[in-house]
């Protein structure tokens, strides 16, 4: 039996670095406070320095307004009411998923999963999982991580995380149905609403672009089926501020430090 093709790592300039080894507690001793905050994903080092000067950072229960303060063993650092600490064990991967791949860590029917195809020596010691689901025939952006807090934040309805899809239909989408989708309507499991919907290009009414912030099972396909259309291709092109730029189908990349800060504090 022919082995499935592995995903390829993108070498584009917008790719982040592979994860390093986890920091040990003793490695943090002597680190400047602004650097500590930056490595904790709070902000860039310069922005972190401004936060410290503004009195927004607590160290051991007291405001610490000196960005050059050096971390000592046992220090507890708080920002915005939460304890923060560097953790380089968190991994964030953006994948452009192809068709016929299951979005799960394992499959009882022995079908190919995204984790089967994500093979990288830098990831051997990490227990990763996909955030949310793309069905087998849906392509596009998928985030893979081991950060449970980020996964919860990006999938919980209250955060209304935006996603953009391109849906190619079995026939042209009528202007009447486009107007109906703009208004919204009821499906069997609740309301369907879009942020916006329009043809993917001005002359192409068979491929429709839409932005939504809901994530119920097969929601886009069911929304078009409700109006009498079959979705022949479905591609997610935008996810929580992340795009497919320089990321061909079947490729993945590590998020940059700025992108990690964005999704860790996304709401």
Number of domains: 3
In CATH, what is the homologous superfamily of the largest domain? Pseudouridine synthase I, catalytic domain, N-terminal subdomain
Helix content: 10-25%
Can you summarize the main beta sheet?
Answer: 10 strands, mixed
Please identify the top-level CATH class of the largest domain: Alpha Beta
The CATH topology of the largest domain corresponds to Alpha-Beta Plaits
How many helices? The count is 8
The CATH architecture of the largest domain would be 2-Layer Sandwich
Low-confidence stretches: none
Rounded radius of gyration (Å) = 22 Å
Tally of strands: 16
What structural class do helix, strand and pairing data support?
alpha+beta
Detailed description of the structure:
Helix 2 crosses helix 3. Strands 1, 6, 7, 8, 9, 12, 13, 14, 15 and 16 form a ten-stranded mixed beta sheet that branches. This protein has a four-stranded antiparallel beta sheet with strand order 3-2-4-5. The N and C termini lie far apart (45 Å). The model has no long low-confidence stretch (mean pLDDT 89). The longest helix is centred in the N-terminal third of the chain and has 9 residues. Strand 12 and strand 13 form a beta hairpin. It folds into three domains: 101 residues, 2-Layer Sandwich (Alpha-Beta Plaits), CATH 3.30.70; 59 residues, Structural Genomics Hypothetical 15.5 Kd Protein In mrcA-pckA Intergenic Region, Chain A (Roll); 78 residues, Alpha-L RNA-binding motif (Alpha-Beta Plaits), CATH 3.30.70. It contains eight helices and 16 strands. The chain is globular. 21% of the residues lie in helices and 27% in strands.
């Amino acid at each position: 039996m022919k082995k499935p093709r592995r995903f390829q790592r993108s070498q584009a300039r917008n790719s982040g670095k592979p994860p390093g080894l986890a920091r040990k507690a003793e490695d943090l001793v002597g680190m400047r406070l602004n650097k500590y905050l930056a490595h904790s994903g709070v902000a860039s080092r310069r922005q972190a320095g401004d936060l410290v000067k503004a009195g927004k950072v607590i160290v051991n229960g007291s405001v610490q307004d000196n960005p050059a303060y050096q971390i000592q063993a046992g220090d507890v650092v708080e920002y915005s009411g939460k304890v923060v600490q560097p953790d380089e064990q968190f991994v964030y991967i953006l994948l452009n998923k192809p068709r016929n791949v299951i979005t799960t860590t394992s499959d009882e029917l022995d079908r190919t999963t995204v984790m089967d195809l994500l093979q990288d020596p830098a990831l051997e010691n990490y227990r990763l999982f996909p955030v949310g689901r793309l069905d087998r025939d849906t392509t596009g952006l998928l985030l893979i991580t081991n950060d449970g807090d980020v996964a919860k934040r990006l999938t919980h309805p209250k955060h209304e995380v935006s996603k953009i899809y391109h849906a190619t239909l079995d026939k042209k989408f009528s202007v009447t149905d486009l107007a109906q989708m703009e208004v919204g309507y009821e499906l069997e499991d609740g309301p369907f609403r879009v942020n916006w919907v329009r043809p993917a290009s001005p002359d192409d009414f068979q491929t429709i672009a839409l932005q939504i912030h809901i994530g119920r099972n097969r929601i886009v396909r069911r929304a078009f089926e409700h109006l009498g259309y079959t979705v022949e291709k479905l591609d997610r092109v935008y996810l929580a501020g992340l795009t497919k730029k320089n990321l061909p189908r079947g490729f993945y990349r590590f998020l940059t430090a700025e992108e990690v800060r964005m999704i860790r504090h996304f709401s």
